[in-house]
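It is worth pausing here to work through a concrete case rather than discussing structure prediction in the abstract. The textbook approach is simple: state the sequence, then state the predicted structure, then interpret. We follow exactly that order.
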Amino acid sequence: MYTCPVCFYSELDFNPLKKDYDICPSCGTEFGLDDFDESYLELREKWVKWGCRWWKKADEAETQ
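Step two, the predicted structure:
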């Protein structure tokens, strides 16, 4: 398991530092695209401003 460097979700099944266009199900960061011209801190600030909402809708529906 890997940890997202943006939201610190700790159950990623891929290495986000490889930048293979995988998407974090928690914050929705697409590694290799979203982090191309923004730092992890900037992406985290945007996610927090957005309300730290769960990105993956299917998982969100299961938790409610």
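Step three, interpretation. The CA atoms of residues 20 and 31 lie 6 Å apart. The chain has a mean pLDDT of 91.
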